[in-house]
Amino acid sequence: MKAPEGEYAWTATVGEKGQIVIPKQARELFGIRPGDTLLLLGDEKRGIAIPPKGAFAELFGMAFRDQDGDKE
Questions:
Q1: Cβ contact 64:72 at 8 Å
Q2: Residues 6+ positions from 28 with CB-CB distance below 8 Å
Q3: Which value, to the nearest 10 degrees, does the dihedral of the CA atoms of residues 44, 57, 15, 9 take?
Q4: Which residues pair with 14 in a beta bridge?
Q5: Which residue, 17, 23, 48, 51, could crosslink 10 as a Cys pair with Cβ 3.0–4.6 Å?
Q6: pLDDT tens readout for residues 37-58
Q7: 57 by DSSP, 3-state: which?
Q8: What would the pLDDT profile of 8-22 be if each residue is shown by its tens digit?
Q9: Residues 37, 53: Cα–Cα separation, whole Å
Q10: What is the SS3 assignment for 15?
């Protein structure tokens, strides 16, 4: 069965220290480099999500704006 355009699935093995290796194709596709910091979001019912690297800045921006949309 072929995946829909732009959708992918990979597997990763968790090591003894709880580390996973992100497959090379995924790292290349999403521009993940050694030393990058990734955000992991978890939901007990839906699982773990790793949003794109750029989402980090967007989330911080939203968290530090006041109710009027201005930075505090």
A1: yes
A2: none
A3: 70
A4: 20
A5: 23
A6: 888 889 999 999 888 877 777 7
A7: helix
A8: 889 999 999 999 999
A9: 8
A10: coil
